[in-house]
């Protein structure tokens, strides 16, 4: 990477634990690729010290912004000055831009990263029918992004139906024209199927949906990156479906984060 | 430099302005040379926001410590938890180590850097008679370090004599056996002559001492790094003196700072 000087713009990722984060590697590669004089460093912050840490970090005049990950995505919403409509409706953000006057503007790009990841592999979402398993953090971000990307309809399936209903209501608040249904474990009859639960991360996890109902015409998408080849994706391929791994979501997020943070080639 | 990951230890330099600082380049080179997984970044902090910024930064669990420069060297003394005797007597620090529990320990290495710089060019100070021009920040640090390095005597010369007297008194508080005199602009009769004023940085500055009194047996030392070849050093060489440039002080400071911050090869 480029030499760090007094003129280098600073960025950080807030996380706890911190060791596993990959954003420093990816973002610093991105900066090098576009020739931008910036550096992103890990910032290991405990949840109970987030408020005072942010109060200090926002004073740094050469700070461009912060990436936010577990466990801080929800808590930053009370600590920022402005937030995008989507971040507000989701109640979580994964990026904070520091404005020149020190204000922090929050945005949630997890879902947009997922959509751009699909586009990067040639899959447009406009007009498609979509099935979303889950109603937690990732599902919230992706649900909003699918609707924003113009899906014809969105079916939300979650073990706890009340959480699916709540997500539906919040999406309709922002996009009143959206067609949103509450689904069952059966994903059949949708063109795009997305697992946004964490089921599949651990060996022996139950499947996130009824894979016997997958159809060869479907595109089956995973948010899980580790393992790359989840039981869901294996079953989907066996049934002749196209599949989308979790990794492109992260790769596209880096670009989106950089754009939101005002990072440009120079 | 090495790739930054979630496991990389973080260091920063607090300054305002920030663009001109060279510590990021030097320290990151040092980390690379010894194979240490650390990164030092610029932190642009205004004086009136130093306290709240430090309160936030000290929460960063992967922060190893902070280098401190203009205008924060004095102010950090009220914001740290512990300080070395020398830093306390000088009333200023240029490095803060973050202890594992978040406490900040302050130390002043400007003077030790100067002494180690002299050693690195083969000049021992023990037993020598020393003349110090100035009684400001740099002179304070160097005055203490000269006595600590075992000079036979130290003569302090400053336009405002009361500041020289004050420095003398504070050195004697910590080193009651030291032989310290208040001097005049005449540096003759000392083996080592040090300019620790800022005179010589700007074109047209008056000389920091009476150079007509320099003697060929003397070693004449400069703290000014820019320009490298000050009017004092030019005059000293014309009179046959050995000279010491300002740069080795900074190079040796990097090593001293790294040692104080607990940076080791790994």
TrEMBL record, chains A, B:
Involved pathway(s): Metabolic intermediate biosynthesis; chorismate biosynthesis; chorismate from D-erythrose 4-phosphate and phosphoenolpyruvate: step 4/7
> Which positions fall inside the Quinate/shikimate 5-dehydrogenase/glutamyl-tRNA reductase domain?
123-171
Q: What is this protein called?
A: shikimate dehydrogenase (NADP(+))
User: Pfam families from the xrefs?
Assistant: Shikimate_DH, Shikimate_dh_N
UniProt-listed Enzyme Commission number(s): 1.1.1.25
Name the GO terms of the biological process aspect: aromatic amino acid family biosynthetic process; chorismate biosynthetic process; shikimate metabolic process
Among its keywords, does the record have NADP? yes
Keyword list (alphabetical) reads: Amino-acid biosynthesis, Aromatic amino acid biosynthesis, NADP, Oxidoreductase
Q: Entry's InterPro entries?
A: Aminoacid_DH-like_N_sf, NAD(P)-bd_dom_sf, Shikimate_DH-bd_N, Shikimate_DH_fam, Shikm_DH/Glu-tRNA_Rdtase
Please give the superkingdom of this protein's source.
Bacteria
Catalytic activity reported: shikimate + NADP(+) = 3-dehydroshikimate + NADPH + H(+)
Annotated ranges, domain Shikimate dehydrogenase substrate binding N-terminal: 13-96
List the GO cellular component terms.
Answer: cytosol
- Single annotated GO MF: NADP binding
